[in-house]
Design a protein that fits this description.
Length: 341
């Protein structure tokens, strides 16, 4: 594998492939396991993630990169093989979540800023040595009638750009993730409001990336799709989501960026697939448009597993199916009839 940032970025978003976001912190894993009655132990997290990474068909055909949480980056499968080696053997790039989560942004009621810049340069060296070749930093932009503020957007965009520059200096491709929330509180905003906030956010992010001399050929953008809030009275069809999303991206994302890999953000498995498919089937775009889903790639697999070793094959099958459906959506070749198979 080449060390050039642009080659790594391209490898992550090849046609029909996307990124598996398996970087849930231990706290988030607790939230995912609790409703299924699964105990949140290191062994359970390992067994579950080993099932994902050893799902050969999904990993070989539909996964170009895997985002890991720090624990998993250093973890080994039950037989002692490092997870990083299993991921690389499947032809996927191992990556690492490097932000330290969000904190309230002083002077900005209801807004947060993502933290973790101070220790980043040093951590990146260590992550590189273990095999990580890309990283992820998630900024959260809250939406209601008066939010976000321009100050909130700028603070988050600046942190994203500083993070991206530090990653590239360390030979690591930054996934730049500004998430305009769909499932926040109250989460009842319209698709037009999401459009407006996403546009302002992307504009600020690319301005800051430029000011920090980030090489756009060596990043992957991970935005939200333009969707109504999850509690909005009026929901949108995949065609409407595609129309709004592609329009906003075309206006604000330079074509030097090799790939755009969406977060699922609380969409159902089917919505996330149908929306991505509508973009690729109905629009031409200068960048690869693909997925970097957490929930929408894993929910079915986690449910099928339920913490029971005897269910691991069924879980792997469920994950392989979702990965294949999204791989088809990334080429605009999905239709609902394929779900039955
Ligand atoms: P979801 O697809 O579940 O939103 O997770 C993607 C992610 O990595 C959020 O940072």
């Amino acid at each position: 594998m080449s060390d050039r940032l642009e080659d790594i970025a391209h490898a992550m978003v090849q046609p029909g492939q996307g990124i598996l976001a398996a970087d849930e912190s231990n706290g988030t894993m607790q939230k995912r396991f609790d409703p299924l009655g699964i105990e949140n132990t290191a062994d359970n997290r390992r067994d579950y993630r080993e099932m994902l990474f050893r799902s050969e068909q999904a990993m070989n055909e539909n996964v170009g990169g895997v985002i890991l949480f720090e624990e998993t980056l250093h973890q080994k499968a039950a037989d002692g093989t490092p997870f990083v080696d299993i991921i690389k053997a499947a032809g996927a790039v191992p990556g690492i979540k490097v932000d330290q989560g969000v904190q309230p942004l002083p002077g900005h009621d209801g807004e947060t800023v993502t933290v973790g810049l101070d220790i980043l340069a040093e951590n990146l060296k260590a992550y590189y040595d273990v095999g990580a070749r890309f990283a992820k930093w998630r900024a959260v932009i809250a939406v209601d009638k008066s939010l976000p503020s321009w100050g909130g957007i700028r603070a988050n965009a600046h942190a994203l750009a500083r993070y991206a520059a530090l990653c590239q200096a360390a030979g690591i491709v930054p996934i730049v993730e500004p998430e305009v929330q769909m499932d926040g509180d109250p989460g009842d905003h319209t698709i037009e409001r999401c459009h407006e906030v996403t546009a302002a956010t992307l504009k600020a992010v690319f301005n800051e990336l430029d000011e920090q001399n980030v090489k756009l050929e060596g990043i992957v953008l991970k935005p939200n799709m333009v969707v109504p809030g999850s509690n909005a009275a009026k929901q949108a069809s995949p065609e409407e989501v595609a129309e709004h999303t592609v329009a906003v991206l075309k206006r604000h994302v330079p074509s030097a960026v090799p790939g755009i890999a969406f977060l699922s953000g609380g969409q159902s498995d089917l919505e996330a697939t149908a929306n991505l498919n509508a973009m690729n089937a109905g629009h031409s775009a200068p960048w690869a448009l693909t997925y970097s889903y957490g929930r929408a790639l894993q929910a079915a697999a986690r449910e099928a597993w339920g913490g029971k070793p005897e269910n691991l094959p069924a879980a792997s099958k469920a994950f392989t199916h979702r990965a294949r459906m999204n791989g088809l959506a990334a080429k605009g070749e999905w239709n609902e009839g394929l779900e039955a198979g």
